[in-house]
Amino acid sequence: MKRWIWAVLIFLVAGVVGGYSVAHYHEDQLQYSRNVVNGQTAIEQSNYAAAENYFSRALTKKKYDPVANDLFEQTKKFVRAESEFKSHEFTSARIDYQGVDKYKKGSKTLKERAKDKIALIDKIKKNVKKFNKQLEEAKKMNAAWNFYGSNATIDSLLSSAEFKKNYYETLYDQAVILQRFNNAGIVADQSAFSDDTTPDNGGGSSSNQPSIAPRYRGPGPATAPSTPDKKASSSSSSKKSSESSSKAKDESSTSDSKQESSSKDSSSKSDASSK
């Protein structure tokens, strides 16, 4: 009788424990499945932080599950690639996007998005080379003082909708700065050219004003060196000679008059004495 009672009790305890274990297993399985599904839904909504959290919870229910593990690691790699892409670290971002495709049991959505980003990075790198080449040409023209040609190239860049995207913000800033230098150079050239070709109405430039060396001197009549006027010089010399001769004649005439007067006075005195 006692043996029978003990057997029944053991059977009941085993049933309870077994039932609890089975129920707990089914509960864990249910939570695991819910977390995986919720994580995949979060990926579709581009809520990657929530997706990582769901996949992490799924792994607490099935620690070494390959599906949850691949989804979790794949999502982390995609999030890191996205961060690198936003920071314009395109080389490292491309490597991580390529890694997203290696998870066999991962999300197909993440794989497709990673492929799209790889194609975009390749396009950006190609455009960077093209835009950089145009910018270098504009810099060379600026160095050669061809400000109008440099600005024409920069205007072409700045009018491009693609060039205005934040992927090329460093090149865009360089183009804007170079355009300002070109505009300043154009204004300086116009001012220097105007100062150099304005007629001098003041009878000569002031010695206190600094001389301006314009970058471009427009074509103008050549100024012949001044030469003395031979006729004017001869006339002036002749005039001076005539004046000198006339003066000598006047002086001679005056001297003769004085001598004649002196002779008359002497004669008058002699006549008076004889009488």
TrEMBL record:
Protein's UniProt name: Lipoprotein
Compositional bias of kind Basic and acidic residues: 240-275
Residue ranges of the region described as Disordered: 192-275
Taxonomy of the source species: Bacteria, Bacillati, Bacillota, Bacilli, Lactobacillales
Entry keywords, A to Z: Lipoprotein
Extent of Polar residues compositional bias: 192-211
